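name: query_chain
kind: protein
chains: 1
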Amino acid sequence: MNLIAAAALDWGIGYKGDLLAKIPEDMKYFRQKTIGNVVVMGRKTLESFPGGKPLPDRLNIVLSASQKGENAENLIWVKDLDELFETLKVYDTEKVFIIGGGMVYNLMVPYCHKAYITRINKVFPADTYIFDFDSAEDWTLAEKGETRIYEDTEFSFDVYERVK
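structure:
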């Protein structure tokens, strides 16, 4: 299972329900990695999408204990980890991406083997943070992406892997 996120230097990922930075290359990278695959998210993440609609060309699974919506063609609601793992049994774990929000990321880190992190070389006001992969002994930076710049923001596409 994989995790994909954009994180600031302090591992902040969001503020008041929105991303910290909107970087077009990051959005493109996210689409390239997740199209045709399974994405797992919390209810608030789904609600943050345009019209609160699931992402096209992906199976969207929403993990929410508090609220359950209607299943649709590319949308499945699950209430807990048991139901999530039961649903995921039929999918290749390499094609499953955890996409947010903060609670879901941090809940699912123990089940992930790879993390695709758009590392933003800045600190922003944030109220949502993700797991600190740099400080974890069981994770390693497997690929450090080249530094890119959008407007005044430096970022890179980094890949962390769980140490076996």
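note: The radius of gyration is 15 Å.
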